[in-house]
Every structure is written in structure tokens, then in C-alpha cells.
Amino acid sequence: MAHSPTSFPVVFFNSYTGEGLAKFPENEWTTVDVTGIIPEGAKAIYLSGLLIITHGTLEQICDLTLAYRDQGETEDYPYMAQTVEAVVNGGVRTPHSIWIPVHDGKFQIKWRRSTMGNWPENCAYAINLKLVGYLR
Q1: How many Å separate Cα 93 from the centre of its chain?
Q2: Choices 2.40.160, 3.40.50, 2.30.42, 2.60.120: CATH for 14-135
Q3: Distance between CA 83 and CA 123 in Å, rounded?
Q4: Rounded to whole angstroms, how far apart are CA atoms 26 and 111?
Q5: Cα 82 to Cα 29, 97, 117, distances in angstroms
């Protein structure tokens, strides 16, 4: 009997509801610990999910970028994933998957948005990524 693959939510936030923003503050490197999910000695993880923008009523270009780095790195990467929405009252759900190196079961993530303010006038941003695999 076959089963669906198991996945573990590891990165989620929503700028409209505020959910996850304390754990993943904007424009700051945040350490994500997946030691309880992956085996000791794993070298990389595979994340897959969505980058989300819901456009508000103001005319603006809404840009969401996301960067990753290995735990302990000091390089400040500008971005490794991006989605953009420019249509008033529009929305975009961009699939995103990536292999990320891990050290001692940890990696770092940073996100940025191009607009401030709250929906429904301004854009709302969200990221929903699940860990679906690892490499030893």
C-alpha cells in the first residue's frame, strides 16, 4: 500500500493576519531548526511551497523576495526567490522549491517586501514552505 509523502511545515507567515511574523521578522536573518525532523548528519533539506501576494486597492508594484543561507554563514544574500504582483486587486501564488544546506540541522532565512501598510489598501504577503526531503 502506498502513502502520500510526509511533509513538515517549517516556514509560514502572513503579513495580513500577523501569524508567524514574530518568528520570521522582515529583513532579519532567522535561524530555522529542523533537528527534530531530519536525521543527524543531514547536509541539505528540500523545501517546497508557495510565495504569496494578495494585491490591495492602491496602484503599486508588490515584490516579495526570500533568501537562504547555511547556519553560521555571514554572507548577506540579496535574494534567491522572488514573486511580484502589479495588478490592483490581483493576487499571485508562486510555487517555490529549493535545496538548502544545513549545519547541525539549522539554516537561516530572510524575507523582504517592497510595500508597507496593511491589506486591503496595500499588499499582503505570505510564505508557506514545507520540508519534503533531506540529503545525507
Answers
A1: 12
A2: 2.60.120
A3: 13
A4: 6
A5: 17, 12, 20
- Give dist(CA 11, CA 119) in Å, integer: 21
- Residue 1's pLDDT band, with cuts at 50, 70 and 90, is very low
Contact (CB, 8 A) for 125 and 40: no
Q: How confident is the model at residue 5 (pLDDT cuts 50, 70, 90)?
A: low
Q: What is the predicted pLDDT for the residue at 8? A: 87
3-state secondary structure 100-118: EECECCEEEEEEEECCCCC
Domain boundaries, the chain: 14-135
Q: What distance lies between CA 108 and its chain's CA centroid?
A: 11
C-alpha cell at 45: 533539506
Q: DSSP per residue over 4-28, as a string?
A: PPP-EEEEEEETTT-TTTTTS-TTS
The residue type found at 22 is A
On the question of pLDDT at 16 being above 70, the answer is: yes
The SS3 of residue 28 is coil
